[in-house]
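Summary of Year 1 activities. Much of the first year was spent building the evaluation harness for sequence design. The harness presents a backbone, in tokenized form, and records the residue chosen at every position. We chose the following record to illustrate the format because it has been used consistently in internal testing since the harness was completed.
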């Protein structure tokens, strides 16, 4: 049912003031609804009010109305891309503490945050002991890429291997390979933490191979590349995989103290200070 409003001297500035205007207004709302421009429809009264109050031109008012819809659409798409990315934590590059990671070149991370490396399908290898921020940086890079509009996916080496293994058994190998070929940026976290089953090397190799020179991988490992033959249980496959990964790549060696342990030590230190401060000396 459509209602027509009649002129009301007490009405808001943007509210329609005559029956014709009211029906035009209702029609406009209906058009927006048919076109599924729900955010624009919702903001229509406010934009019309602003147009009158600020004396906006027709072009300016239309631009403002459509900008509302564009912003909402972009926010929805980003939320969708982030859902698809499956990030394990909300870590961002902006939160990364460079003072705590002296080996990490801030200028390089700032450059990577621009996502230009994705255009040349450059890979990023983050190598270092536990707690040095590898996963944090990988998540931050994936998030930046998603924010820039790229399709991304985050997984661990163990999950990727397990999923490929199931796919092989269930006859979905080709579909699964297409899935891992899809995202512009694929993060493979924690290569080397868990001993991988024999068939994992083939799966990871194929994923790396099919993305080679087309799309980027960010890979983290607690083991230097020299140990990958041992991790994958096959030195030939490891060498072939490294060849492709490193051909166009940025390798970041993270070392230094574990951030997890730093936080733990800082807590202990505070605890020690408070307890020694309040406790009576033993006599
Ligand atoms: P890794 O993957 O190298 O084992 P993580 O990235 O998981 O280490 O880091 C462990 C924890 O410490 C995470 O909560 C992470 O956000 C935090 N962290 C590590 N390094 C930094 C850093 N330089 N700045 C801020 N947080 C950090
Ligand atoms: Mg990690």
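For this record, the design step produced the sequence shown next.
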């Amino acid at each position: 049912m459509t209602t027509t409003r009649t002129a009301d001297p007490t009405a808001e500035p943007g509210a329609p003031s005559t029956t014709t205007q009211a029906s035009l207004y209702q029609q406009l709302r209906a058009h927006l609804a048919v076109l599924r421009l729900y955010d624009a429809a919702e903001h229509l009264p406010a934009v019309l009010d602003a147009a009158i109050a600020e004396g906006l031109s027709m072009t300016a008012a239309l631009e403002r109305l459509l900008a509302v819809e564009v912003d909402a659409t972009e926010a929805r798409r980003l939320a969708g891309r982030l859902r698809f990315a499956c990030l394990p934590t909300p870590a961002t590059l902006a939160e990364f503490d460079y003072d705590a990671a002296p080996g990490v070149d801030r200028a390089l991370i700032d450059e990577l945050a621009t996502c230009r490396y994705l255009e040349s399908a450059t890979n990023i290898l983050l190598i270092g002991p536990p707690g040095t921020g590898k996963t944090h940086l990988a998540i931050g890079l994936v998030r930046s890429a998603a924010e820039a509009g790229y399709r991304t996916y985050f997984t661990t080496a163990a999950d990727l291997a397990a999923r490929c293994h199931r796919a092989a058994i269930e006859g979905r190998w080709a579909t699964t390979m297409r899935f891992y070929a899809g995202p512009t940026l694929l993060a493979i976290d924690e290569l080397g933490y868990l001993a991988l089953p024999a068939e994992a090397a083939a799966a990871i190799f194929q994923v790396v191979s099919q993305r080679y020179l087309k799309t980027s991988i960010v890979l983290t490992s607690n083991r230097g590349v020299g140990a990958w033959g041992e991790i994958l249980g096959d030195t030939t496959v490891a060498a072939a995989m490294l060849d492709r990964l490193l051909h166009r790549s940025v390798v970041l060696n993270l070392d230094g103290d574990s951030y997890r342990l730093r936080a733990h030590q800082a807590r202990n230190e505070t605890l020690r200070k408070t307890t020694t401060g309040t406790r009576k000396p033993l006599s």
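Residues 19-83 form one domain. Quantitative recovery figures across the full test set are reported in Table 2.
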